[in-house]
Write a structure and sequence with these properties.
The protein has three helices and no strands. It is mainly α and about 90 residues long. It has one domain. α1 packs parallel to α3 and α2 runs antiparallel to α3. The longest helix has 24 residues.
Amino acid sequence: MIHALITLVWCAGCVLAGAPWPFYFWVPAFYIGREIAQSEYRYIQAHGGKRANCPWWCGFVPSAWTLKSLLDWALPLAVSLAALGAKFVWL
């Protein structure tokens, strides 16, 4: 949940500063990349613990994802989309 709050603060700053739409997605992009890296580490641990056994696509294997890791990037993305939608509707 803290990721969504950080994203909300970032998006509020973007709205107040009048930032263009790509700025709203910097924080969610960071969290998406971070969660992909963490799922790679979970995959490595589950398959021998060696980086050499890890294919390039291992961060995208559904079995390496948990509900928490999915929410850690989905909630910030939802907050950014909502903030961007609110900007276009109300401002």
